[in-house]
Model the fold of this input.
Amino acid sequence: MSSTGKREVDKDDIKVPHTPHDIKCKARRTLLSQKLRAQRKKAKEGARKERQMERQKLGDAAPAVQKPRTIESMRRQDETVVDENDQEYQDEIEIDEFAEYFQGREPKVVLTTNTNPAGCAIVFAKMFEKILPQAEYCSRRHFELKDIVKFATNREYTDIMVVNEDRGKINSLMICHLPNGPTALFKVSSITMPDKIPGGGEMTSHKAELIVNNFTTRLGHTVGRMFAALFPQDPNFKGRRVCTLHNQRDYIFFRQHRYMFESREKAALHELGPRFTLKLISLQHGTFDTSSGEYIHLHKAGMDVDRKKFVL
Done:
């Protein structure tokens, strides 16, 4: 106590802010938060460099770097995963519905939409005329799908692709393989047309190369071969145009690029578009039939609960 009657304040009684939450001034609080983040980042980077130097010193004796845990790496074992070297599997694909297309038959695809389609469905369907040189767009008008199947089969078309939209938004794509199926229905999402892709290029009429990637199960191989049967088996390499269908966690991503070799080891890619994502809803034997078609696969809501279980 001082002579004036006032209590002297001890320095130990002063509260020094240790965290940004203790500071009332917003500007000072923000500045301290930035400094703390920078310190943590610097410490983390220093620790990483130390570990790297330690591994270099140990050489072969260094412990193996652990692979990151991803949903793909934790995928549940599936007995339907195909071994491509299995002779039994090779015998099966030599007589399946798509065998003749891998032996030289040219695909011929008819494109159409749902009845009374919005403009977006017509534009998207006609886009496949450029992607698939042997594809031809036909207006749906009032025809039933069963009638279109008969019409296309009689004129020796090999596949029917039907783009469906609802309230001006494309929601599904059906592919029906002729003359005897199978028929696949896909949910369509994340569509980006070529004119919306920054720096997008123009498609040419060259026959595109096709990459079908990461389809590992029997169902996946069937879907992959169904896509491959839409493309000619004699791509024009001079066009340097390549279409990719990449499966990841049962979502199929479509991309289209033109490539150019900058050197023997490096290639540059120029995206052409469009971009879109497919999700398999159903695959059934035979051509389009909503009543009696036997399903090979039918997606149900409960299948999305287990995120480590994939069907393709």
Notes: The helical segments are 26-58, 87-93, 119-131, 145-154, 218-228. The two ends are 81 Å apart (CA to CA). The first strand starts at residue 109 and ends at 113.
